[in-house]
Amino acid sequence: MPRTGRRWVLVKYFEGHPKDGDVRLEEFEIPPLKDGEVLLEAEFLTVDPYMRSLNKTLELGSVIMGEQVAQVIESRNKDYPVGTWTLPFCGWTTHSINDCKNLTKMPQMPDGAPRSYAVGAVGMPGLSAYFGFIDVGKPKPGETVMVSGAAGAVGNIAGQIAKIKGCKVIGSAGSDEKLEYLKEIGYDKVFNYKKVTDLDAKIKELAPEGIDIYFDNVGGMFSWTVIQNMNKFGRISVCGNISIYNQKVPEKLPPFFSKMVYDQLKMEGFVVYENRPRYPEGLGYLSTWIREGKLKVKEHVTEGFENMYKAFQGLFVGANIGKAVVKV
Question: How far apart are the first and last CA of the chain?
């Protein structure tokens, strides 16, 4: 069994975009197991924008947080024998020791699906899209849905669920390549926000009858403009706000409370982990839709643990289409 591992630790708190000197890749010694513990070896690790927003909750020198797909390679726990696949939240590390008190076993994947789906379409991002769109959006057939960050890990799935539910779906993304992908997975109308000079006019062109549901992944002025085009009784599902994660000075937005009041809009943020008791429900639907071909999955896979930080930095310049994962 390996007696050393590698891990990425936080050296300096991010200011603006994450920089090369903010983290360090280091080697560490793996201690012997105690009774009840297992040694895990990572196969896939996830990189997600939320890791940027929560970095100041860590102490300097700590392993950067995150989930992974890992296999038990040594065990002193009868419930987790060698070979068991798990989903530990142990951060950016190739190896970790776990006491198994809160260790999640990997659920059954759809036939033929890679294990990486467990941290993507059949994992946290897929569940975020499911609960955020179904519970907050409360879609009805024929309604118009707008998804920002539509080609990302959560947005692409949210848009496809909207189509499954019979909605008309508009998506925004930051490259023409991403727009082609959105068309492939069923988006009705798409636009490159980087090429739009008048966002309000563009939304009115694509949604002349207004927007009923807005699945928000970006926040900021973009979302303020979308909200101005919401229909009466519209629902806004706030999943993320990547547009402001790297801002050194908070963005000042115009007020929108009158719009919220007079059009009786509902705006609700959500945290996917609050829905843990209902994970089997969400995973069941996601797996079924994948098997039936109704939900298509695209991954942006980076090879090599040493490239973990580059994959993370790429999130903030739009490098990924679909879910970004790293294969050790």
Answer: 17
